[in-house]
Write the structure tokens for this entry.
Amino acid sequence: MTRQSAIAIAVVLLTAVGAATVSSEASAAPRWVNDEIRITFRAGPGDEFRIIRHLNTGARLETATPPADRFPAASVEGWTYVRDATGNQGWVRDQYLANQPPARVRIDAVQAERDSAQERVSALTAELSETQGENAELSRQLEQSQSRIAELETRFEAARAGFELVETNQALEQTIAELSQHNDALQRENKELSDRSLKEWFLIGAGVLGAGIIMGLILPSLRKQRNPWGSGGL
């Protein structure tokens, strides 16, 4: 809302108040003491009657119905039976009454409305300035929030990539561990086979050696048995 808009709103409010005031005044049909400085408010329609009080310029009065048994119609010519703001009823001369507030009262009312409108405009202007300040602060906070969200999204993507990397690394480590276990098992199996082969070759060698020794001991005896006469012949 601009300052011109605030002023326009204040003018509309002032116009509405003025229209409502005019409508209310027309329906109530009030009377006012005109631009005379001071008039008398009497108990009857004539200067011979007691003065109830004096009324100043701008005093608002309401017409009322006079008691007909006390004041015949012929005796009230030029006078009006009215009720003042405090509820007192009495008579005032018609020449001192007006159907609308006197200029002095209207000027005062307009000035009061103008002052009220100016105060409203000032309040709206201050409110506008405050609202603009609040909007600026909210815009700054919004920018900070959006920047923070972007930063968190970047960190989230990096964390997710890192998490996937960790998962991949853990899978590789698991595979490596399984391969290491398999390799250890193969090494153990190979060692067992090597040890078994060595034992077998050792046993075979020992057997061959033992057989040679036995053959070395048996063969001379066999030769002697085949030649009973020894080396001398016929």
User: Anything to note?
Assistant: Confidence is low (pLDDT under 50) at residues 10-28.
